[in-house]
From TrEMBL:
Keyword RNA-binding: yes
A Gene Ontology molecular function term of the record: alanine-tRNA ligase activity
Protein name: Alanine--tRNA ligase
Lineage, highest ranks first: Bacteria, Bacillati, Bacillota, Bacilli, Lactobacillales
Gene3D superfamilies: 2.40.30.130, 3.10.310.40, 3.30.54.20, Bira Bifunctional Protein, Domain 2, Threonyl-trna Synthetase, Chain A, domain 2
PANTHER family: ALANINE--TRNA LIGASE, CYTOPLASMIC, ALANYL-TRNA SYNTHETASE
One Gene Ontology biological process: alanyl-tRNA aminoacylation
Length: 882
């Protein structure tokens, strides 16, 4: 068998299927576009779902790709097993209603065994099939010539992820030799749990439609178009070519491991199994972090950003196990770039930016890590003084807030002779996972094919870039309730015309609106929406007012005012995109957009809020370009020519072989299929309405142009005049001084109120401090204070500490609709086992809330002020038991 590098394996796979008429799709961003069901692109087919569910018919029905993917559902297994990864590449070949098993299976065999391609020994290949898939069995045995003893039935070989395409699959295994036999001999067969027979390829024969309500695949109907979907993990198959025991001993990971050895200076890979786990985790996680940041995701506390943060922190913690205390992950980013440069040159091109984000996050975590280790020391001390068990909720806090994996807390606990409440930890983890699941979209992961729309091959031409009215165009199709009809008299319908000026919603730009006229000039329908049908036709949604008949001709007329407003905002979006890249950096990329007649919304990747000064500079720059009256022009050309023009491709998957390039003077050029103003002067003006974060590392700017900007300015004038009246400013220019004066007066009043409140609180505290009650062996002061904030309670507790007139202090503040509690415990009482955190948890239910804290100080909040007296009673009863 050949010895191939990872780059050579990927290249051979893609070139083989290209030779079979497949189009090579480039690896798409890890951040899904227009797919709320996915946090990350997690498979080779994920970016092709629009073809499999029939919403789009591809130009070439044969596709191949090598797609970077991220999965983190079993992150704890990384490093402990031979082949678990967070980032991986899935290579695949796909047929969208073109070839099927009779081609897919022989081609798979040819790629694997032909000396021209992979050149594997056929005797080392084994196959599993779905027991009822007689067609696949026949092809393997009689067309390919696979020996019968190399073919195994496997009942689990049926690919089904819910409603939508599904079908049997066939898995291909490589025999690595007897030395990899599992100790449990009953598992030593292809498909068993063993290391000998390594699965390297899965061929999915997508031939059934899992319809709503069906649970048995025997009842699934055939798909109108049958598909092929295969997946070959690059990391797995490379381990075969490079004779590696695990995926980590390949050229995809070893350079990272060797660089980590160099940074550590203490340990070598392969000398200690425990340390090897850390080497593997670091190599795996830095790959995922590097690619994720390179695609625009940034560390944060939610969504994708949380995953990045968690991966990075796990890598840092494993670095500590290798004796690495300094910032080091940034130094691995260029290594990732070097490994992947043949197919992903953008990593090396952006390595400085990616490394800067990694470094900043690592520095931040090192500070958090120090705090977490201090907390862990306190937790260990408390557990030793208690029952020798670290509470599961506390362990989860260490994990969730400080990035400590459970295993690390357990390891520290074991070193100190303690245990960790795993059940409690798992309960907290499940609660978090349930919250995450409930926050995700409930849309199906892949839609059900619409046979009618997929089958329509009607010719339809869009002319709306230059014409807003089309006379005498033929009504080719009418659809009502997903059935073709010849005539509609009134109500809702969908229609395809031979020629249309109506823009179909795409790329964030909403569809045109307008009217349909008959030959007599009567309005027979209103166009309320336009979408792209699977074969590219513009599918008009109509409110039919008078009879319409297939085969007759009609006049189509776009609402010009609405069209112009949308087009202006689209041009402004291009100006904003270019200006953001100019002023914030080229790494700032589009993450989504919405262009309507009223407003434009632009999402972009950026690490942190954009300052008010920078926003003003962005707005001023765009208005300068509007004043310059730059022409807006467009040209259709091939992709390579477009790139030579300097055109920016935002979401490359939506472009075919011929692309449309829209240019705004010499300021901006982009791949684009939308409508635009004729010149920037038509926009009138540009005004930013808001800038805010929408997720991990993604910001959103909303803005208006033209009439929308004028309306906003008028609204601002109205607000200012109202403020001027309220602050009694004769001129708008005096508003600022008036407001500053009012703010100063307010702060003085607040200081006086706070001073009086503190004096009253001190008086009340002195009265209470003089009358502690005896409970069991302890003294207790429990009193309600007429204060407005927790700060005053804390100040009162500080005064109590000076003289410590009791062993325990319980303070309550009735704030109307809510209540605050504060518990303090004297040092001697803490030593005797009285803990403020435990006490506050015991009494907080009385006020309808919860809380926690340290052994000497804790607090709680609730929504039942009427329960304050019950809380005091509960405190006394709790002390009575001690």
């Amino acid at each position: 068998m050949k010895e191939l590098s990872s780059a050579e394996v990927r290249d051979l796979f893609l070139r083989f299927f290209e030779s079979k008429g497949h189009k090579i799709e480039p690896s798409q961003s890890l951040i899904p576009q227009d797919d709320p069901t996915l946090l990350w692109i997690n498979s080779g087919v994920a970016t092709l779902k629009k073809y499999f569910d029939g919403s789009v018919v591809p130009e070439n029905h044969r596709i191949t790709n090598a797609q970077k993917s991220i999965r983190t559902n079993d992150i704890e297994n990384v490093g402990h097993t031979a082949r678990h990864h967070t980032l991986f590449e899935m290579m695949g070949n796909f047929s969208i209603g073109d070839y099927f098993k009779e081609d897919a299976i022989p081609w798979a065999w040819e790629l694997l065994t032909s000396p021209e391609w992979f050149g594997m020994d056929p005797d080392k290949l084994y196959v599993t099939v779905y027991p009822n898939d007689d067609q696949a069995k026949d092809i393997w045995l009689n067309k390919v010539g696979l020996p019968k003893d190399h073919l195994y039935d496997e009942p689990d070989n049926f690919w089904d992820i819910g409603e939508g395409p599904s079908g049997p699959d066939s898995e291909i295994f490589y025999d690595r030799g007897e030395e990899f036999n599992d100790a449990d001999e009953s598992e030593n067969y292809p498909g068993g749990e063993n290391e000998r027979y390594l699965e390297i390829w899965n061929l999915v024969f997508s031939q059934y439609n899992h319809l709503p309500g069906l649970t048995d695949n025997k009842d699934y109907p055939e798909l109108p178009t049958k598909n092929i979907d295969t997946g070959m993990g690059l990391e797995r198959v490379v381990s075969v070519f490079q004779h590696a025991k695990t995926n980590f001993e390949t050229d995809l990971f070893l350079p990272l491991i060797h660089k980590t050895e160099e940074i550590s200076g203490q340990y070598k890979y392969g000398e200690d199994d425990t340390k090897d786990i850390s080497f593997k985790v670091i190599a795996d996680h830095i790959r995922a972090v590097t690619f994720a940041i390179g695609d625009g995701a940034l560390p944060s506390n939610e969504g994708r950003g949380y995953i990045i943060r968690r991966l990075l922190r796990r890598a840092v913690l494993h670095g500590r196990k290798l004796g690495i205390s300094q910032v080091f992950l940034k130094d691995l980013v260029p290594v990732v770039g070097d490994i992947m440069v043949s197919y992903y040159p953008e990593i090396s091109e952006n390595k400085e930016y990616i490394a800067s984000i990694v470094e900043a996050e690592e520095v931040r975590f090192n500070k958090t890590l120090s705090d977490g280790l201090s907390l862990l020391d306190n937790v260990i001390a408390a557990a030793k003084a208690d029952n020798g068990v670290i509470d599961g909720e506390v362990a989860f806090k260490l994990y969730d807030t400080y990035g400590f994996p459970y295993e690390l807390t357990d390891e520290y606990a074991t070193d100190e002779g303690l245990t960790v409440d795993r059940e409690g930890f798992d309960t907290q983890m499940k609660a978090q996972q349930d919250r995450a699941r409930s926050a995700r979209s409930n849309k199906a992961s892949m839609g059900v094919q619409n046979e009618l729309l997929t089958s329509l091959k009607t010719e339809s031409t869009y002319v709306g870039w230059s014409e807003l009215t089309v006379d005498n165009t033929n009504l080719a199709n009418l659809i009502v309730d997903n059935e073709l009809v010849d005539e509609v008299t009134q109500g809702e319908a969908q229609a395809i015309f031979a020629k249309t000026p109506f823009y179909a919603e795409m790329g964030g730009q909403v569809a045109d609106l307008g009217n349909i006229y008959d030959e007599d000039g009567q309005v027979v329908a209103k166009v309320t929406d336009v979408q792209n049908a699977p074969n590219g036709q513009h599918l008009h949604t109509l409110t039919v007012l008078a009879p319409m008949t297939v085969g007759k001709t009609y006049k189509l007329d776009v609402d010009r005012a609405y069209h112009a407003a949308v087009s202006k905002n689209h041009t402004a979006t291009h100006l904003l995109d270019q200006t953001l890249r100019n002023l914030l950096g080229e790494h700032t990329t589009q993450a989504g957009s919405l262009v309507t007649a009223d407003v434009l919304r632009y999402d972009f990747t950026y690490n942190g809020p954009v300052s008010a000064e920078k926003l003003q500079e962005i707005e001023d720059t765009i208005n300068e370009k509007i004043i310059e009256n730059l022409p807006v022009t467009w040209v259709e050309t091939d992709i390579e020519s477009a790139k030579k023009l300097g055109a920016v491709a935002v979401f490359t998957e939506k472009y075919g072989e011929t692309v449309r390039v829209v240019s705004i003077g010499d300021y901006n050029a982009e791949f684009d299929g939308g409508t635009h103003a004729n010149s920037t002067a038509e926009l009138g003006m540009f005004k930013i309405v808001s800038e805010q974060g929408t997720g991990a590392g993604v910001r959103r700017i909303e803005a208006v142009t033209g009439a929308g900007a004028m309306r906003l300015f008028k609204l601002h004038d109205e607000w200012l005049n109202n403020v001027a009246t309220q602050v009694k400013a004769p001129q708008l220019s005096e508003i600022n001084d008036k407001v500053v004066g009012l703010q100063t007066a307010l702060k003085d009043a607040e200081r006086q109120v706070a001073s009086l409140e503190q004096k009253l609180a001190n008086q009340a505290a002195n009265d209470a401090f003089a009358k502690p009650q005896q409970v069991n062996n302890y003294t207790l002061i429990a009193t309600e204070m007429a204060v407005e904030s927790m700060d005053v309670l804390r100040s009162t507790a500080d005064n109590w500490k000076q003289s410590t007139p009791s062993d325990v202090l319980v303070l309550a503040a009735n704030l109307g609709e809510k209540v605050n509690l504060l518990v303090a415990v004297a040092p001697e009482a803490v030593k005797q086992g009285i803990k403020a955190g435990e006490l506050v948890k015991a009494i907080a239910p009385a006020i309808g809330g919860g809380g926690g804290g340290r052994p000497d100080m804790a607090q709680a909040g609730g929504k039942n002020p009427a329960g304050i007296a019950d809380a005091f009673k509960a405190a006394a009863e709790w002390l009575q038991t001690k």
